[in-house]
Amino acid sequence: MDITHGNLNTVAKEHIATYCDNRLALIDDLHTLDQTNAVRVEFIMAALCIKGRASLYINGEAYTMNEYDLLICHPNIILEKSMVSADVQFRCICMSPEYINQLAVISNNTWDILKYLEQNPILTLKPEETDMFCQYYDLLRSKLTGTPLRHQKEVIDSLIQAFLYEFHDAMERFGKFATPTYSSSERLFKEFLHLLASLYPKPRMVAVYADKLHVTPKYLSAVCKDISGETASDIINQYVIKDVLYLLKKSEKSIKEIVNELDFPNLSFFGKYVKRYTGSSPKQYRKQLAEKETE
């Protein structure tokens, strides 16, 4: 199966965006969401279902969306085989990671929220939370499609900032999430996560990321441990193994092709890596998946 890369402008064009620039897109119509190829999302998307029903695969797992359900997609997830009912209605706000980072407010890189959303990408909102989302959407739509203002950028940035703060507050009923501060260590951790999410295939050496962030590997790992409770290597391997298991599960590529695509040095190293995280060799892992499908 081919995996295409879905950047903001490409997806916005395919789904007839109400508005789109290199920072932000608003999309009303997701009827064309049916996918024959998997898409690796390269932006942050908040898609609210206000009517109808949709089914989709996120990183190989099946999900269903109904009225009042909010889908949060962060960069590097894989969407595929989506179906929507004829009466479905969505309100969809898409933002580039660079734009979110520039706003310097609560963002997708808040570690505890990010971890929660990776495991729970679809949230069921209360009616008042749905109303809040639609109010921001409609106001953004009005400002972006109306007569440009002298301070257009500042107005839009302020609206998005307010939306992100209210979203963070709404998330509190799903779990206890610390409001981030912005020390130099937290900024570095945020930049590390952004860099990790943006690279494919993902280097497995901490030194590669440390070099790009202009710090030592030891310092980067210490910062990660202090903020998240996990070392930089632990976090890198979590992201790498997701790509590995997805390709083993959903791809028709041979194990050797996967080794080459993900830049592993050889089959032996790859086999040991997979066994460390799954308890099975790549071949055994695929065999177990095939047996489950025939049950």
From TrEMBL:
InterPro entries: Homeodomain-like_sf, HTH-like, HTH_AraC. GO terms for molecular function: DNA-binding transcription factor activity; sequence-specific DNA binding. Keywords: DNA-binding, Transcription, Transcription regulation. PROSITE patterns: HTH_ARAC_FAMILY_2 (PS01124). Residues 190-288 form the HTH araC/xylS-type domain. This is Transcriptional regulator, AraC family. It comes from Phocaeicola salanitronis (strain DSM 18170 / JCM 13657 / CCUG 60908 / BL78) (Bacteroides salanitronis).
